[in-house]
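Reviewers of the previous submission asked for a worked example of the structure-prediction workflow described in the proposal, so we include one complete record here. The input consisted solely of the amino acid sequence. No template or homolog information was supplied to the procedure at any stage.
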Amino acid sequence: MFNNDEPVLDENINHQNYDPQIETNIRKMLQSQQFSILCTQGDEQPYGSLVAFAYSDDLKHFFFTTPTATRKYMLLSKCSHVALVIDTRSEHPDSMKNIEAITITGIAQEVKPGSDYEKGMKLLKGRHPYMVEFLEAKSTAMFQIDTIRYFHVSRFQEVSQWIP
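From that input alone, the workflow returned the following structure tokens.
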């Protein structure tokens, strides 16, 4: 499931800053944040898009939706390598040292109706009940990201890696 084009975090950083509670910290952040920046690429240009997300209990899969008539959909159709960036900056506007961030790298694929679609839709509706009309629109596509790894940044520059 690992991609050769995605380097492992530098060993010195990984061991020096390893946090045995990283999964707990990641879960706490995911529970507290409703939105993420989806990072895509295309036409030799990176793009960032705001998405409402949901995730599986094992933290191996993320779900989000997008209208099919968007640049985001087009880019995802052309290149499946993505990242999600989630942070706590809104909780700590006066202190960079208290902000945490995670970057989740993975492979995105459109989910067609079936069991995975129903699972993702249930998670999205449970997390974002105000979005039901948008989620169910015929012009909306659902994507699933299969996670490769997490990078957790705390105290402004301490980086840890976790692979679920």
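Helices lie at 11-16, 22-32, 71-78, 115-127, 132-136. We consider this example representative of the routine output the project will generate in years two and three.
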